[in-house]
Amino acid sequence: MAWSLPSLPKLPLQVGGMSIAPAAVLNVVSLIAKNLPGINPPKPIYAILNATSGINLTIPASWGELIFRKQWQVSDYPIEAGGFAAYNKVTRPGQFEFTLIQTGSDLARFTWLEAIKQQIKAAPLARYHVITPQGVYTSYTITGLSYQTRADRGSNMLYLDLQFSEVPQIEAPSLLGDKVAAAASGPLAKLGRVFSTATAAPVAAVARAGAALKIPGF
Question: In the chain, fewer beta carbons within 10 Å around the N or the C end?
Fold first, then answer.
């Protein structure tokens, strides 16, 4: 069973009986948080959580740069005036790069990096929920890894860059709802003809009738 993040509280869409847009609510909250820094968390929250187990991928010494990309693909053929529709602009999976920084001795940095490599190798299809102060990114998988050390930044500092790509998840309910019939088959029977798989009861009945009437092929 997949582990899921708790639901965020819903934004109020009405004040005094007057409807307001969600974007307006967010702008108001941003303004309040800017002028009242005491309501902000004392420390930024970062995490890379496995979508199935909820276990953190790693805990670095510090979290570095985050670059997020979201693109929309637009049709490149001429469109009749007023004919621009939803199918002419589709959302592409989101992508981002996350820099994690680890310090310490050579052994400390080696074991930290190797632990991440082993997790990726053991579960290459794992999905992650990434939590940052700028947003929560759900259902992403690791598509790239690179790291470097630089003398001008300190030889004991390891910079690890992880690339993530969104894995869109959709529900595909059956068209029959809860009235899906379970597959069933009849018992195997020797009717003068070899059947390689289990034969359904109606087919077996036809075979018996054909054998009794001595119809060629039965």
Answer: N
Q: What are the residues whose beta carbons fall under 8 Å from the beta carbon of 70, sequence distance 6 or more? A: 91, 92, 94
Could you tell me the residue ranges of all domains in the chain? Answer: 42-75+87-166, 185-218
Which H or E run contains 163? Answer: strand 154-166
The single-letter DSSP state of residue 104 is S
215-to-38, 192, 195, 206 alpha-carbon distances in Å: 90, 12, 17, 11
Tell me how far apart the alpha carbons of residues 83 and 150 are, in angstroms, rounded to a whole number.
53
Rounded CA separation 34/30 (Å)? 6
CATH for 42-75+87-166 is: 2.40.30
pLDDT digits (tens, 9 = 90+) for 40-79: 667 788 999 999 999 999 999 999 999 999 999 888 888 8
pTM: 0.61
Neighbours of 32 (CB within 10 A): 10
Query: φ, ψ for residue 40 (rounded to 5)?
Result: -80, 155
Long-range contacts of 139-146 (CB under 8 A, 24+ apart): 139/51, 139/166, 139/167, 139/168, 139/169, 140/94, 140/96, 140/164, 140/165, 140/166, 140/167, 141/165, 141/167, 143/95, 145/116, 145/117, 145/120
